[in-house]
Specification:
33% of the residues lie in helices and 25% in strands. The chain contains 15 helices and 19 strands. The protein has a 7-stranded mixed sheet, with helices on both faces. A 6-stranded mixed sheet has the order 2-6-5-4-1-3. Strands 7-8-9-10 form a 4-stranded mixed sheet. It is globular.
Length: 465
């Protein structure tokens, strides 16, 4: 349960002084704005204009005016206002990065509000649309109140999905655009929350976010992780940041589907890939008496599920020694027989070529490589790498066996080319494939249909003949 005050209430004494001061100012402004909005008799006037008019310094609130024909996509909910969609900016002095601005149509009537960035290709991250501001005025033009409401909503959603539970306490609490907080990801592992920041506005509101996440029931440690390269594109240099309090906790034990994992909070991404939870569980249902190969296994998620599912033998392969240290520790934590599950350090391509030379085959192969197409401009070259990897993987599957192949590259998933690439791999390998199952990220990774770019994970289960 998230112990937060209702939107518009007072801040508890435990809030840090800076946060408390911001929240008190926000509460006073929002209350006045809500009263003014309620008193207005004009249903056609903009709620945001009415609210802004009641705010101190409203005359300085800039408007980002969209080009003709560019408004509807943002009215429909796309949160990323790219610079090419902007016609002009009204306001003197001009807005600075981090300022709250109105986003307006060609007639200069607001359609929503968001946080401005003068450097990023996304000059505004839309936070709330006009219609929502009319319904919930206390959160309008107010990042602190909006953060409260959105984080509370995210907690409620996960609770409705049964997370956390006795069997699973590793899950995603906030999924960026899917939870309407673009640039913010929060993963929870047992009593530790890892906050991943990839937007300048997230860094600006770091204290508020840390405070609100710390109030989520069960969270005792917070690890803040900033995506330096992405933030640099946002005009934010983390080397110049005055570091704020973050937990010194480096590892934690978490449970997913009854399997215990040692999670490194310094590891890849947030430390653990909760997005594959449902796909890992599916592997456990297929594993009994099978010989299974888990390629690019990281800390052993698929392999451990296979072993728990009764596999005859499981081998995991990864190039990272530190990841395999976690994987081997996970064997011990789950009391598994090391003669039936083991991990090998090595390159997946080299391993498969060696297996092909030895005519070694497996009943079920999992291929979950790292992101090969981080951007659209490298999609063509990445497609070649995916094709080559999958062609090799198909050659180490026994005839009639199964291959679960994955892509975590958003550019590949959104292009719709992954299945075509798989078919190309089958031709290259001289094999025939049939799609048995198509899946994506687990249900705690919601996707906003207004922002399909949030869909990044592709997972196919194939029969290989």
């Amino acid at each position: 349960m998230l112990r937060l005050r209702a939107c518009g209430g007072t801040a508890p004494a435990s809030v840090p002084a800076l946060v408390r001061a911001r929240l008190y100012r926000a509460a006073s402004s929002a209350a006045c704005a809500a009263a003014a909005s309620a008193a207005s008799s004009s249903s056609s006037s903009s709620a945001l204009e009415e609210l802004a008019a009641e705010r101190k310094g409203a005359k300085c609130l800039a408007r980002v005016v969209l080009k003709k024909g560019k408004t509807q996509i943002f009215r429909d909910g796309s949160p990323m206002v790219y610079s090419g969609a902007v016609d002009r900016i009204i306001g003197r002095p001009p807005p600075k990065s981090g300022d709250i601005v109105l986003v307006a149509d060609g007639t200069e009537k607001p359609i929503g509000w968001g946080v401005y960035n003068s450097v990023s290709m996304f000059c505004v991250r839309l936070m709330q649309l006009e219609e929502e501001a009319r319904r919930y005025p206390t959160c309008a033009l107010n990042m602190e109140r909006l953060l409260e409401a959105r984080i509370s909503s995210a907690v409620d959603l996960r609770r409705s999905l049964g997370l956390p539970s006795a069997n699973t306490n590793a899950y995603r609490l906030i999924n960026s655009e899917g939870d309407r907080l673009s640039g913010l990801i929060v993963d929870v592992f047992s009593d530790a929350a890892v906050i991943a920041s990839s937007a300048a506005w997230v860094e600006k509101y770091r204290q508020e976010i840390q405070f609100l996440v710390s109030k989520v029931d069960g969270v005792n440690h917070i690890k803040w992780r900033s995506s330096a390269d992405i933030l640099k594109e946002e005009g934010y240099d983390i080397s110049e940041r005055k570091d704020s309090s973050s937990s010194s906790c480096s590892t934690v034990k978490a449970v997913e589907n009854g399997i215990i994992y040692l999670v490194s909070l310094e590891g890849q991404k947030t430390g653990f890939y909760a997005d594959q939870r449902e796909n890992r569980h599916f592997i456990s249902l297929l594993a009994k008496d099978q010989r299974i190969l888990d390629l690019c296994c990281y800390s052993g998620g698929f392999a451990l599920n296979a072993a728990k599912g009764g596999a005859e033998n499981v081998i995991g392969v990864d190039s990272s020694g530190s990841a395999l240290d976690l994987a081997n520790e996970n064997i011990k934590l789950n009391g598994l027989n090391p003669e039936r599950i083991s991990f090998t350090k090595g390159d997946a391509t080299t391993f498969m070529k060696g297996a092909i030379a030895e005519n070694e085959l497996w009943d079920l192969v999992i291929l979950d490589p790292p992101k090969l197409a981080p951007r659209k401009k490298v999609l063509q070259s990445a497609s070649g790498m995916y094709r080559s990897l999958n062609a090799l993987a198909m050659q180490v599957v026994k005839p009639g066996g199964l291959l679960m192949t994955c892509s975590c590259s958003g550019a590949m998933t959104q292009s719709g080319l992954f299945l075509k690439t798989i078919q190309g791999a089958a031709s290259m390998a001289g094999r025939k494939v049939t799609v048995l199952r198509q899946a994506g990220a687990a249900c705690d990774h919601p996707i906003d249909p207004a922002y399909p770019e949030g869909q990044y994970l592709s997972n196919y289960l194939l029969r290989v003949t």
